[in-house]
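During the reporting period, we have paired protein sequences with C-alpha cells. One record among many follows, to show the layout:
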Amino acid sequence: MIQILTFLGFTVLVAIISYFATRKTAESSSDGYFLGGRSLTAGVIAGSLLLTNLSTEQIVGLNGSSYQSGLSVMVWETLAAIAMVVTAMFLLPRYLKGGLTTVPGFLAKRFDVTTKTLTSVLFLSGYAVVLLPVILYSGSLAISGMFDVPELLGVTHTQSIWICVWGIGCIGAIYAVFGGLKAVAVSDSINAIGLLVGGILIPIFGLILIGDGNLFDGLQILTSENPDKFKSIGGATDPVPFYTIFTGMMLVQLFYWGTNQQIIQRALGAKNLAEGQKGLLLGSFIKILGPIIVVLPGIIAFHIFEGNLESADSAYPKLVKKVLPATWVGFFAAVLFGAILSSFNSVLNSSVTLFGIDVYKQHINKKANEKTVVKYGKVFGIVLAIAAMFIAPLIANAGSLFAYLQEINGIYSIPILTIIVVGYLTKRVPAIAAKIGLVSGCLLYIISQFFMQPYFVKTALTNAKVNGITDAKELALVKTQAYPHFLDVMAILFILNVIIMLFIGVIKPRETDFVQEYTKQVDIKPWKHVKTFSFIICAIVIAVYIYFA
C-alpha cells in the first residue's frame, strides 16, 4: 500500500507544480501554446530534453542490449552529446533567426509549402504509427510488471496492458493537449531530477549487492570478472559495430537532436539563443553520464543473473526488483511513469504543433486566427492519442522495441535530414530537388530494409545451414555479413540523396539565391562560452572512448 501511495503522491505533486507554473502562460496564441511563450530557460530546456529522450523503450531496451553486448551500446548516449553540440552551434542559431515554430516551417521558406507539408506528414506518420504506440506499450509493460497489475486487479496480462496503455495515454494527453509545451517542459524538468536520482540508485544498489555491502568492491568485482563487457569498441555481431559511428550513427544522432520536431521544439521555445545553447550543452553533458543509467545496469544484471535470463529486455526490470528496497519502489515507479508520460506527451505536443501550424493553418483554414489553430490542433491531438492507444497493445510481437524503433525511423529521418542540410548549405538547389529527395529517400530505404535485406539474409542463412553451419554465433555472423548494417544503409542513402539534390540544383537551379531573414522574435546573440564548453564536451566523449577501448 505504501508503494502505491508514494507513487500517487509524487505523480500528483508534479501535476500541481506544472499547473501553477503554467497557468499564466497565454496558451491561446501559437507561441504561447506551442513554444511556451518563447520563455524557456536553460535548465528547463535541458531537463525537458533529457526526459523527452529517456523513456522505458530506451531504459529497458538499451540495458537489454548492454546485457548482451556490453559497453559498446553506449554510443547511443555518448555520441548524442556531439550531435547536441553541433545543433547548438550550427542549427539552433539559424532556427531562432528565422523565428521558427516547426522545423518544416524552414522548408517552406527555403523550398516551398508542398515540401513543408510532405515533411510534416512524414513526421506525423512516424509518430502515429510507430513512436507513440511503442512508448505506450513499453511503458505499460514496465508499470504492469512493477505493480503486478494482473494480480492486483485480477485480470490477464493482455488486459493489464490495455488498462495501463489507456491510463498512461489519457494522462499524457491531458498534459500535452490541454497544457501546451510549457506544461510538458515543466513536468519534464521535475521528473528529470527524479529520474536521475532513481536511475543512479539502481546501479549503486546493484554494485553494493555485488560487493557484499561495499560499492567500490562491487565495481572492482564487476569489471575484473566481466572484462569483455567493458569495451567501447563494438564487434561485427554487436548491435552497433564501432565503424558505424563514422557512417550512419552520426546522421541518426544529428536528425534526432537537430531536426526532430519532438526534440528541437524545446530549444525553439528558448527565450533567447544563449539560453537555448546553454540548455543544449547542459543536456549534452548529462548525456555523457547517461550510460550510468541506461547501460551499466544491464552489465550488472548480466553478472548478478550470470547471463541466464531468458530475455535480455527483462534484465532491467528484474534487476530493479532484485536490488531496490521495497520503500523505494513507489518513488521509482512514479519517476518511471513520469519518463513514460514525458516521451508520450512530448511527441503528442509536437504532433499537435505540426498539424496546427503546417496542415490546418496552411491547407484547411488559411484565415484561421491563432486561437482557432490551437483549438483544432488540440482536437487532432486527442484523435491521435486515441488512435495510438488502440494500436499500442497490438505491437506485442514487434521484437526488440529499441532496435525496431531505430530501424523504422530511418524511413523518414534520413530524407528529412538530407533536405534540411542541403537547404542550409546551398542557396540555389530548387524545391523540386527537395521533393525528389524526400520521396526517393523513403522509397529506397523501404526497398532496402523490408524487401532486399530479408531476402539476402534468408538466402545466406539457408546456404549456411546447407553447408552444415548450426552454431548460433556463427549463424549470427553470417546474418550480419549477408547485408549492410541499417546504419550503413542510411549513410549510403544520405550521400546518394545529397548527390541527387545537388545534381538537380546544377541543371535546374533556383532563379535567385535563398537568403534567410532575421525575424527578431528572440535575441540571437550566442552564449559567450559556447565554443569553450562545446570543445570540452567533445574532448570528454573522445577520452571516454579511448579509456574503454
